[in-house]
Specification:
Low-confidence stretches: none
Order of helices and strands: HHHEEEEE
Strand content: 25-35%
Shape: elongated
Number of helices: 3
Number of strands: 5
């Protein structure tokens, strides 16, 4: 009667080659990715009106935008709106440039 249960248990539960570990990490990371919400034309028009009002009156806004598979919120003032490049420039230390496509919501504070 042979007793090699300890050997089988050790091999089955803790032996993983680095390629498998890397692959599992990538799969778990992809599972956490969010998809960008779709906004309709009416929401886009409302965002545009709020941005125009904020820049003309030098108001602070809260912008909800989609970047790096996640939704982020920043509060800042607008420094410039470039319609040709479809870009919004903010007076914010970390987020100073946003594309119109990334913007999900704008609130005037």
């Amino acid at each position: 009667m042979s007793n090699d249960r300890g050997s089988k248990k050790w091999i089955g539960s803790t032996m993983m080659i680095p390629e498998h570990v890397k692959m599992l990490r990538e799969i778990f990371a992809e599972m956490e990715f969010r998809k960008k919400p779709i906004i309709d034309e009416q929401q886009k028009e409302e965002i545009n009106m709020k941005l125009q009002c904020a820049i003309h009156n030098d108001l602070t806004i809260e912008v909800v935008f989609f970047a790096n598979h996640d939704v982020t919120v920043v509060k800042a003032k607008i420094s410039e709106i470039n319609l040709e490049q479809k870009t919004l420039y903010l007076k914010h230390p970390t987020t100073n440039k946003l594309t119109f496509d990334a913007i999900l919501e704008v609130t005037i504070l």
